[in-house]
Specification:
Largest sheet: 9 strands, mixed
Strand order of the largest sheet: 14-13-12-11-7-10-9-8-15
Structural class: alpha/beta
Number of helices: 10
Oligomer: single chain
CATH superfamily of the largest domain: Dihydrodipicolinate Reductase, domain 2
CATH topology of the largest domain: Dihydrodipicolinate Reductase, domain 2
CATH architecture of the largest domain: 2-Layer Sandwich
Distance between the termini: 47 Å
Radius of gyration: 20 Å
Strand content: 15-25%
Shape: globular
């Protein structure tokens, strides 16, 4: 009897548990293993029945996994990915790629050499309304784009009400928390939809309302080389969750309502139409589609959806926004390099 294929997840938080369940659903009866990001001993009940709990990453590597998912806190993403890539194991890295560009010092060449087997998990790109929104922009539905407005926010204590939010990754600087890293899906899709931005001016604040040591509010202006401006607001404070991208064009305005999986077109003062509407969409399908795609990446039959170049571009933008907030000045994004 042939030995079961192993899939590995590093980390045991909420996103790691989602990946474990989805791996079992998509790739069963394969063996799904998990190792703690911090090196602590895992209990079977923490990560689901039938999950193999490895005592260390070294032990997990001996199982020769078909591919691995790095779902550890962002400061450890590169360290864990390096150990996998050195063994030529394809890696899906949870977003963001890292908490800072400096994490890639000394290992960038490895990532470049192994780029065909590295994908970064910006799963929002797999949402049905995301591809529809991109198609509408590419066909020029609202004509020349004049401005972009992004608004994303949700009250942090409501994210995972069964746990103390102050202990979660999102709330702790040492674990890569804060809105810029946690909500970087928005920064990824801006690059995906509109290309590179040249400069960033950012104000990042810690309101004091949440008892956290990370920024809980960000407002930024991103300017493309041709002068197109994106206004970006991100926070952990809004009691009524919001997640929208509004594109003002010459012929009208498109609004991508991500929470409701809907796209609206405003073509006049009293003219509004719904171009896409799928409110019953199961959001876990984004993660399933992402895993299906990465399974093909691992086999060499597909290219990464969010490769190392895209992921570094987003991390570079995050770092430029942080630097701008710290010095109170406009920062040229391309001046920051890994």
């Amino acid at each position: 009897m042939s030995e079961l294929i192993t899939y590995l997840v590093i980390g045991s938080g909420s996103i790691a548990k989602r990946h474990i369940a989805n791996l079992k659903q998509l790739f069963g009866p394969a063996r799904v293993g998990c190792v703690s990001a911090s090196g602590r001993a895992l209990q079977a009940e923490e990560v689901g029945e039938g999950t193999v709990c490895f005592v260390s990453l070294q032990e997990a590597l001996q199982s020769k996994p078909r591919f691995a998912i790095v779902a550890s806190p962002a400061p450890w993403h590169i360290e864990h990915a390096v150990q996998l890539l050195q063994q030529h194991i394809p890696v899906l890295i949870e977003k963001p790629l890292a908490d800072c560009l400096e994490r890639l010092n000394g290992v960038r060449d490895l990532f470049d050499r192994q780029s065909s087997m590295i994908d970064v998990a910006y799963n929002l790109r797999y949402m049905t309304s995301a591809s529809a929104f991109k198609a509408l922009l590419e066909e020029g539905r609202v004509g020349e784009v004049r401005s972009i407005s992004v608004d994303v926010g949700q009250y942090l204590p409501d994210w995972r009400p069964d746990s103390d939010y102050r202990n979660n990754v999102s709330a702790r600087r040492a674990l890569g928390g804060g809105v810029l890293l946690e909500l970087s899906h928005e920064l990824d899709y801006l690059g995906w939809l509109f290309g590179d931005f040249e400069t960033a001016y950012c104000v990042a604040r810690t309101s004091g309302a949440l008892e956290v040591d990370v920024e809980d509010t960000v407002d930024a202006l991103l300017v493309r080389k041709d002068g197109l401006v994106a206004n970006v607001h991100m926070d952990f404070l809004q009691r009524a969750p919001v997640r929208t991208c509004k594109v003002v064009g010459q012929e009208g305005s498109l609004i991508w309502d991500i929470l409701n999986n809907r796209i609206l077109l405003h073509s006049g003062r009293e003219e509004q139409s719904v171009l896409f509407d799928d409110p019953s969409y199961d959001r876990n399908n984004m993660y399933l589609d992402q895993l299906r795609h990465f399974g093909q990446v691992a086999q060499g039959s597909e290219r990464p959806a969010v490769g190392i170049v895209d992921a570094l571009r987003t991390l570079q933008l995050i770092q430029a926004m942080k630097r701008s907030a710290s010095i109170g000045q406009v920062v040229t994004i391309g001046d920051l390099q890994a």
